[in-house]
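Example (one chain per record):
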Amino acid sequence: MTGLTYDNRDQAQEDRRQQERLLEALGAAPAQLRRDEAGWWVIAGQRGTIQTWGDGRTWLVYVRCRSPQHWTFTKRRLVFMTVTQDGDEEGCLRLFQIPAPHEAVVIRDVMGLRRRVDYAPEALERKRASMARAGLARGAASPTVPGVAMPDEVSERFPPEGGPAVEGPEVLFGTSLIAVGVKGRFQAQGAAMAPALVPETLPNPSREEFAAKASISAVSAAEPEESA
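Predicted structure:
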């Protein structure tokens, strides 16, 4: 990513190293060093950005403020910099050297930079151990057997792949409807047109009764009807 910004990769790496030196002196969080829309390495805060001047030694600081009065007050706080562009509520300044600790505090506050959090070796080790225990706890809480168990009635109705087919009343009833054919469809339409003739509750016949009805329906469909 050096097309419109850096001439080559080495120049981009040198620019990044200069920014890292300033970031270290400011005591700011490393995540705030990133590429901007144009591809330059910048230190991005909530109220401005910092990029290198291009000479390998100094920096360009852009600051935006809430009002003209706020910008005037900010320039007074940044007296250790030189104003290069003076706007109404914003402006640019040049930083000529690595800031002193008290100047770094002012820059972080003006720019809205997050401070870097440094952990002692013991605290860092405890933090890593705590994260490891949390990961193990999440793994133990997950189900050990993948998949979902099916209810017994579903397992009986639908056997495993390759098992024997299960014949139930629904299968035999469907066979009888196919055997009846057109005659059965007309009978179904007649029942739908006269719902009063259909009982509210249907009996629950056994498998043998369904088989007998299917055989009778098949014979009736095969025999021709007598003319009136």
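Caption: The longest strand covers residues 59-64.
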